[in-house]
Amino acid sequence: MAKEKQEFKIIDLPGVGAATAEKLEEAGYTTLMSIAVASPADMVEVAGVTEATARKIINTARNKLDIGFETGEELLAKRQNISRITTGSKAFDVLLGGGVETNGITEAYGEFGVSKTQLGHQLAVNVQLPKEQGGAEAIAVYIDTEGTARPERIIQMAEALNLDPKKVLSNIRFIRAFNSDHQMLIVSKIEDLIKNENLPIKLVVVDSLMGHFRSEYIGRATLSDRQQKLNKHMHDLLKLAETYNLAVYVTNQVMANPAIFFGDPTTPIGGHILAHASSVRLYLRKGKKGTRVARVIDAPHIADSECVFKVIEAGIRDVDEK
């Protein structure tokens, strides 16, 4: 029985011929599991089939897979495969439970100048480090939506770690996203880089996530459309993170909430959709004497707590580190 399931291919699904199978694979549906967890609407859009056929395809894929429950021990064993990328600060790493995790989305929000982009640059360098030094021996993709990517800063950080700057730069794939549709398309192209070019990508940086969505959808009348689009974008990023066990780091903009009369009125934009999609949510703010404060706002495995770090020419470091 297990052999039959293993040999069952996408083209064997009812209603899927050679042309449909090719369309599905081009859209990223290369396994039975990817089809089993798809929605009929997605299947209709990418394969050009009717909704009834789409449901039949999805249901057959689900029946051919042994989808069942797993024990806590089995889930724990899967969690052992998760890598953690160092931030460059030991205090920051401790706050995150060892560093920025793969298999999920880490969101950092805060006002301008609190080092959100600096952290993105640092992670793009650190992911290339050996595993024993807090890296993943892999490469990074940097999606720049605001023109803030600076290779000169990467060189400074690489030299501080005694790494070859040219090699470090060659292991980061920068791409400028010019609008929200382009930004979403890039995510599907990252999957192509992993599958077709066998690139060992373990980090995707999106800086910033909401920039284009915020400027393109103005007013309450467009809010629903924006949130639906954002929801799909976040699920695509999460699917990418979980499928290929990579880390997604996104920066987010903020606004001042006029309803808050006491305390910090700084509120991240994106609403509940962004809040629920992020695996770890960090709030960055300026501290005393040029330091920065990182606070965990939401994470399933980390208690609400904060740490202090600094940003120097060498990169992100502990406050007491010279």
Can you walk me through this structure?
- The protein has two domains: 2-64, 5' to 3' exonuclease, C-terminal subdomain (DNA polymerase, domain 1, Orthogonal Bundle), CATH 1.10.150.20; 77-318, Rossmann fold.
- Strand 11 (292-298) and strand 12 form a beta hairpin.
- Residues 1-5 have low confidence and may be disordered.
- It is of the alpha/beta class and 322 residues long.
- Helix content is 42%, strand content 20%.
- 36% of the residues are buried.
- The strands form three sheets. The chain has a nine-stranded mixed sheet with strand order 5-4-6-7-3-10-11-12-13, sandwiched between helices.
Please report the number of helical segments: 14
* Count of distinct structural domains: 2
Number of strands: 13
Shape: globular
| Average pLDDT reading | 90
**The CATH homologous superfamily of the largest domain:** P-loop containing nucleotide triphosphate hydrolases
Strands ordered across the widest β-sheet: 5-4-6-7-3-10-11-12-13
The CATH architecture of the largest domain would be 3-Layer(aba) Sandwich
Q: What oligomeric state do the depicted chains represent?
A: single chain
What is the element string, with H for helices and E for strands? Answer: HHHHHHEHEEHEHHEHEHHEEEHEEEE
| Largest beta-sheet details | 9 strands, mixed
What fraction of residues sit in β-strands? 15-25%
Keywords:
single chain; 322 residues; Rossmann fold; 2 domains; two-stranded antiparallel sheet; 13 strands
Summarize the structure.
The protein is an alpha/beta fold and 322 residues long. The chain has 14 helices and 13 strands.
